[in-house]
Design a protein that fits this description.
This protein is of the alpha+beta class and about 350 residues long. It is built from 10 helices and 15 strands. A hairpin with a 2-residue loop joins strand 14 and strand 15. Bound molecules: zinc ion. The site of zinc ion has 6 residues, from loops. It comes from Planococcus chinensis.
């Protein structure tokens, strides 16, 4: 069910249920008016109860935006507060703007240029891309903000991302980050400095930004400090140890990549050198454990398979860059008395190279 906050009455008046003037007279509005969707023109019903924020619901969605987010109290309060945020900062902002040519309704249209989507529910990553492409086809930039009902803990930690959240990532200087907005505390949360671990697990930094300290265009996250990077490296070490321990009990060892690669490189399976399984940004291009792609890089190097074919896709060129950064790092570590600190500094330098 697609619900909205703004409707047109049968006399042509626009009613915004989030506005103060409407909130005091919902019962009267409901009794005296019929409502229509400003986008598709179809009939709406005004729903107001004790639990849900008052909103308009479509009776038929045939001509309207079918793929927009189902309304929940979180979504309604979030987009209302975000709309107020832009207005308070003197940016032109309109709530719930429907674009008939693409049949999409943006939660907030900012400066007639940015279509803000406040996304609270899980949808398919393909739908995120389709909606972004829809906006782009009419000259708008999609701006995705993840809606959250609970404020996350700040700091460097492992975190989980679902596929639709990854599809919502924005980029600054090649580094992806996610912006979340928590209406309960009127704060933005940035998830940045994201390092892939495995599956849905990543490591990264969570930082709050109160709405009154946020600007528009939105602030971009700062790069990690050496101390913060050391925390990432420490989490990476734990994840690495856990992975190596799990491999000791692997079934079907003759087909287990960890066992095969350790054998090929003549390494002790229970004690890998510390330069294997290190955190390097962008490893999601491999989609596998750091230990595995790094062992594989070393094995390929040992076999002289250093001449990779010309990169055919962005992923392939990303992998190529990771492998060359990694092998360069290993060569440096091996050429020195590799104090832990020195390895950490080298890894931090790789991280900084692209920020
Ligand atoms: Zn409609």
């Amino acid at each position: 069910m697609v619900n909205i906050l703004i409707a047109r009455t049968h006399t042509g008046e626009l009613i915004n249920l989030a506005s103060a003037s409407a909130q005091g007279r919902i019962a009267i509005l409901k009794e005296q008016h019929r409502f229509y969707c400003p986008g598709c023109g179809s009939a709406l019903i005004l729903k107001a109860g004790d639990v849900k924020i008052p909103h308009f619901a479509h009776l038929s969605l045939a001509g309207c935006d079918k793929s927009s987010e189902p309304e929940t109290p979180l979504h309604l309060s979030g987009k209302t507060l975000l709309h107020q945020f832009f207005s308070a900062k003197n940016h032109q902002a309109e709530l719930e703007i429907f674009f008939p040519s693409i049949k999409q309704r943006a939660d907030v249209l900012v400066e007639e240029k940015f279509a803000l989507e406040y996304q609270c529910s899980a949808i398919s990553p393909a739908l995120i891309r389709t909606r972004s492409a829809g906006y782009s086809s009419i000259g708008l930039s999609a701006l995705w903000i993840r809606g959250i009902s609970e404020a996350p803990k700040e700091g460097i930690a492992p975190m989980r991302f679902r596929a639709f959240e990854l599809a919502m990532l924005q980029e600054s200087a090649g580094h992806p980050y996610l912006i979340e907005y928590h209406p309960g505390s009127d704060r933005f949360f940035y998830r940045s400095a994201l390092f892939f671990v495995r599956g849905a697990i990543w490591m990264g930094k969570t930082k709050a930004l109160p709405a009154d300290r946020q600007a528009f265009p939105f602030g971009v996250p700062k790069k990690l400090s050496p101390t913060e990077f050391a925390e990432v490296a420490s989490i990476a070490r734990n994840e690495r140890e856990r992975f190596i321990r799990r491999q000791q009990f692997a079934k079907n060892r003759y087909r287990n990549p960890y066992w095969l690669l350790c054998y090929e490189l003549g390494l002790d399976r229970s004690r890998l050198p510390t330069y294997i399984g290190v955190p390097i940004r962008g490893a999601e291009a491999f989609g596998m454990e750091a230990v595995i792609w790094q062992l594989q890089s070393l094995a390929d190097q040992a076999k002289g398979k250093m001449t990779l074919p010309a990169p055919a896709s962005p992923e392939e060129s990303a992998r190529k860059r990771l492998v060359s950064d990694y092998l360069e790092f290993v060569a440096k570590v091996k050429s020195r008395y590799h104090a832990e600190d020195e390895a950490l500094e080298l890894l931090y330098a790789i991280y900084c190279k692209t920020v």
